Amino acid sequence: NEAVVGIVGAGPAGLTLANLLHEAGIACTVLERGTREYIETRPRAGVLEHRAVQMLTEHGLAGRLLEEADRHGACEFRVNGEAFEVDYSALYGGQTHYVYPQQDVVRDLLGNYLARGGDIRFSVSDVELSGIDSASPVLTWLSATGERERLECAFVGGADGFHGVTRKSIPQGAVQEFTHQHGIEWLSVLAEAPPSTHKVIYALHPDGFAGHMLRNSTVSRYYLQVPIGDSPDNWPDERVWAELHKRLALRDSDWRLTEGRIIEKRVLDMRSHVVEPMRFGRLYLLGDAAHIITPVGAKGMNLALHDAEVLASALIGYLRTGDDSGLEGYSEKCLRRVWRAQEFSQWMVFMLHRSPEPFLSRLGQARLEHLIDSKSSVGYFAQNYVGP
Ligand code: RFL
C-alpha cells in the first residue's frame, strides 16, 4: 500500500484532510469504522462559519453547499418573554453563517474524494497504531470482511472523534489533557418540523435554557436545559413540546412554535476537553479527537475543518520541500483558535443557563442584559460567533 498519510476517521476533519492532501497529489488512505450510509446520514452539527466555507470553496468542495445552504446573519435572544435580535453580520463586516447539516458536509466531502479517486475503507474495526514516534508509523485493522490489513505510512492523521483510538494510542503522560464539566445538561431534540423562526433563538427562562436551531426547511433542532443526570426517558414527546412552548414563549405576540415528529432525543453532557499538544511523534490529532467543546457557540465542526486545513498545508509544505515549520507550528496554531472558541463558548454557557446557585444565574442574566445594551459586548459576541 502506497499511502503517505493514514487517516483514521471519515468525519468532517478526516475527509477534509483527505481531500486537500489528495488534491495536492499526496496519497492517503482513510479508515472509517462506519458504513458509507452511516456517516452520510448521521445528524449532528449544522452551522458553518464564513471562513470554513471560504476554505471549502477554494478547494472546489463547496459546490452544493453554496447552492443549498441558508445564510444567517442574525439571531435572537429571548429573556423574560421579550425578544432581542442581534444582527451579528452587520456588526462584523457583513460575514454570515451558513446553515448546512453536517451529514451533508460529510456526503459532499466523501463524494468529491471518491470522484477524484481517493482511497477509503469503510466498516473497519480494531484499528491499531504502532511506531508513531518513529519515521514510519504502522496502522493495522480488520477489514469489512475480517482480514487483518496493514499500512506503513509517513504520518497518521487522528480524526476519529472523541471516542476514537488515535488519542488513546499516545503514551500516558506524553500530552496534557484539560477537561471541564460545565455543570449543565441539554436535552437535544431533532424533529421533522419546519423552522418556526428565520433566526436561531436562544431563550433564557426561569426553568432553564431553551434553543431553537435551524437545519433545513423540514427538520429543526431544539435544546432544553435539563437537570444533571436526566434521561431522555423522562421526556415523552408531549413534555418536550410543552416545555419548548413555555420557555420560548413571547409576551404580547402571536409567535407560535410549530411541532413535528420527533426523530432523535438525547441528553448531551456539556463537557470541554483539550489535548496539548495535538501531536505525538508522527501522529497528528485533529477535530474532536483533539478537542471537544459544548455545542453552545456552534464551533465544533468549524474547529475540525480549521485543523484539517492547517494540517494539510503543513504536510504539503513538508512533503514537497522538507520545510517542517508548518508541522512544528501545527498544534500551537490550532490551539490558539481552539482556546479562543472554548472561552467564547464558556462565556455563552454562563450567560444562557440557570445555575443551581441563584447568584450565578443572576450574573448570567446580567451578562445577557449587558449584551443587549452594550455595543462593546455585542461586538465581542458578533466577532466570536460568526468566526474570527
Ligand atoms: P466526528 O464527526 O466524530 O468523526 C469521527 C469519525 O471517526 C470514526 N471513528 C473511527 N474510525 C475508525 N476506527 C475507530 N476506532 C473510530 N472511531 C471513530 C467515526 O465513525 C466518525 O465517522 O469527528 P470530526 O471529524 O472531528 O468532526 C467533529 C464534529 O463532528 C463535531 O465537532 C460536531 O458535530 C460538534 N457539534 C457541532 N459543531 C458545530 O460546529 N456546530 C454545531 O451546531 C454543532 N452541533 C455538535 C452539535 C455535536 C453534537 N453531538 C452529537 C456531539 C450538536 C450535537 C448534538
Automatic annotation (TrEMBL):
Q: What domain of life does the UniProt record list for this protein's source?
A: Bacteria
On whether Oxidoreductase is a keyword of this UniProt record, the answer is: yes
Going by the UniProt record, its keywords in alphabetical order are: FAD, Flavoprotein, Monooxygenase, Oxidoreductase
Every FAD-binding domain range: 4-344
The record ties this protein, via Pfam families, to: FAD_binding_3
GO molecular function list: 4-hydroxybenzoate 3-monooxygenase activity; FAD binding
Q: Which PANTHER family match?
A: P-HYDROXYBENZOATE HYDROXYLASE (PTHR43004:SF3), TRK SYSTEM POTASSIUM UPTAKE PROTEIN (PTHR43004)
Q: What name appears for this protein in its UniProt entry?
A: 4-hydroxybenzoate 3-monooxygenase
Q: What is the protein's species of origin?
A: Actinosynnema mirum (strain ATCC 29888 / DSM 43827 / JCM 3225 / NBRC 14064 / NCIMB 13271 / NRRL B-12336 / IMRU 3971 / 101)
